[in-house]
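Action item from last week, closing it out:
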Amino acid sequence: MRGLKAKRVLITGGASGIGAATAVRFLEEGSVVCVLDRDAEARRKILRELPGLAAALDADVSNLKQVQAAFAEAIRLMGEVDVLVNNAGISIRHNFLDITPEEARQRRDSANGVDQRRHGISVLCGLQRHQGGRDRTDEVDGA
C-alpha cells in the first residue's frame, strides 16, 4: 500500500480483527484513520493500542442513522474521507446446530446482510455529493 500518506480513512468494524489490522497498516503508511465499531470495549482498547488513531466512532452498520452520524463525525474530525473500508461483519461463534432463530435472524439482517451494503453505498453516494460529484443516491435502492 503506497501513496497513502495523509489519506483520510474510515474503517467499519475497525476496532478488532481484520479491521484493526487494516487500521495499523494505513497508519504505517501515514494515513489519518478513524475506525467505526459498535463494540465499546473494543473501541476503548484500540484507542489505547493505536494512539495515532484520529478517533474510534460508535455505530452499528445495520443502523443507517448511526452510520450517517458517524460519517459526519469522521468528516468533522478529518475534513474529508478519501477511503472507506467497509469491513464490518458479525460472527456467531458456536456450533451451527446450536444457533438460535434470533441469532440467525440477526446474522441475516445485520452487518453481513443487505443493510450493510446499502448503508455503505449510501455513505459512498453521500461522499460523492460532499466532494462535488454526481448525486447517485437514487442508485442505492437497487443495491
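Closing note: The beta strands are 8-12, 32-37, 55-58, 83-86.
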